Amino acid sequence: MYVSDGSLNTLLQSYVHAAIEEKVITAEGRFTFHNLRGYYATVHKAETGTLPDLHKNPETTARVYDRNKEVKRRAL
Fold first, then answer.
1. How far apart are alpha carbons 68 and 45 in whole angstroms?
2. Percent of the chain clearing pLDDT 70 (strictly above)
3. Which residue, among 30, 41, 33, has the nearest Cα to 64 in the 3D structure?
4. Rounded Cα gap, residues 23 and 38, in angstroms
5. pLDDT tens, residue by residue, 4-17
6. What contacts 26, CB < 8 A, 6 or more positions away?
7. To 10 degrees, the CA torsion angle through 68, 52, 35, 9?
8. Alpha carbon 27 to chain centroid distance?
């Protein structure tokens, strides 16, 4: 059976909302499918030294999912 990313995200969010109502997680602690992909891609890199192949172009994977990099921002 094929499940699209959109359907999976919808299902995940229904569980996240239920977990918030049951006080399992807080509203500030909520997460998305994209957050999970980024987290596990970063864990994979920490364990193996390389990011997983999530895109045709490895630079795209690094730009989108690598959570170890520092992002420089100007102060407000």
1. 9
2. 89
3. 41
4. 25
5. 777 888 888 899 99
6. 20
7. 170
8. 17
